[in-house]
Amino acid sequence: MKLKPLAAALALAAAGLSSAQAAPMLSILPAQSNVAVNGFITVDIVISGLTGINEIVSGFDLNVSYDTSLLRWSVIDLDPGLNVMGGVGNALFGFDGDDSDGKIGGDVTSFLEDDDLDALQGDSFTLMSISFQGIAQGVSFLNFGTDPDLERLVTGRLLQSGIAGVLDLEYRGACIAVGDVNCPGQVPEPATYGLAGLALLGCGIATTRRRRSDGQVATA
């Protein structure tokens, strides 16, 4: 009988962990990378966890900030996003690249109907890729801009009003180390925290049961 509360607690924790993993997220991948001075490296802007009924991408306008003293943008590739939003003939697209403000990005707006987009997209795909050249030794963090309208905007299904609904996403940046340096240790993902919590819970329960067992032997 005493195991039932434990089973219920573990089930709730597992459910919470599953929910955390399923949250839609916009990530810059790889999360950590190294490039030589004068070398080139490419990162992908990836959306994942689009499992809900309203979770498709009908448009986006994204910008990524970086350290212009360490990196120089080289190429912006919007083809991945265009491919899952109907191709060049069914979308408007453009890019914004200027080393002077330390931000680089692009935008795509699809003309396709929601059901057509749903058929093209899965739960995870790349929206665009950005290539950088390392120009000096150091560590540059990549982060999405803060402007909700022009720098970190991803739209989903069309609402009845005809205005695209903005997707509620989590955002995760990245780090590029240039030269003979390394990025700082990566912060654990939410799933890691959940698993650690379950492990600590199990250790605590085992310790409590052992103490109770020892107490019963001593008083017998």
Molecular structure report:
This protein has 220 residues and is α+β, with helices and mostly antiparallel strands. The chain has a single domain (24-187), classed as Sandwich (Immunoglobulin-like). The protein is built from four helices and 13 strands. The strands form two sheets. Strands 2, 4, 6, 7, 9, 10, 11 and 13 form an eight-stranded mixed β-sheet that branches. Strands 5-8-3-1-12 form a five-stranded mixed β-sheet. A hairpin with a 4-residue loop joins strand 6 (91-98) and strand 7. Helix 1 (3-22) packs antiparallel against helix 4 (190-219). The longest helix is centred in the last third of the chain and has 30 residues, at 190-219. The chain is elongated and about 50 Å long. The two termini are 23 Å apart. The model is unreliable at 1-21, 187-201, 203-213 and 215-220 (pLDDT under 50).
Features:
220 residues; alpha+beta; Immunoglobulin-like; eight-stranded mixed β-sheet; five-stranded mixed β-sheet; 38% strand; disordered C terminus
Q: Brief overview, please?
A:
The protein has 220 residues and is an alpha+beta fold. It has helices at 3-22, 79-83, 114-120, 190-219, and strands at residues 25-29, 32-35, 40-48, 59-65, 71-77, 91-98, 103-110, 124-134, 138-144, 152-158, 164-166, 170-172, 174-178. It has a single domain (24-187), classed as Immunoglobulin-like (Sandwich).
| Rg computed from alpha carbons, rounded to a whole number of angstroms | 23 Å
User: What's the CATH C level?
Assistant: Mainly Beta
Instruction: Count every beta strand, where a strand is a DSSP E run of 2 or more residues.
Output: 13
How far do the termini sit from each other? 23 Å
- The structural class is alpha+beta
- Total domain modules: 1
What is the CATH fold-level name? Answer: Immunoglobulin-like
Helix content percent band = 25-40%
How would you sum up the global shape? Answer: elongated
Question: Helix and strand string, N-terminal first?
Answer: HEEEEEHEEHEEEEEEH
Question: How many strands, which pairing sense, and closed or not: the largest β-sheet?
Answer: 8 strands, mixed
Query: What is the typical, i.e. mean, pLDDT?
Result: 79
Assigned CATH architecture: Sandwich
- Which range does the strand content fall in? 35-45%
**Uncertain parts:** 1-21, 187-201, 203-213, 215-220
The tally of helices reads 4
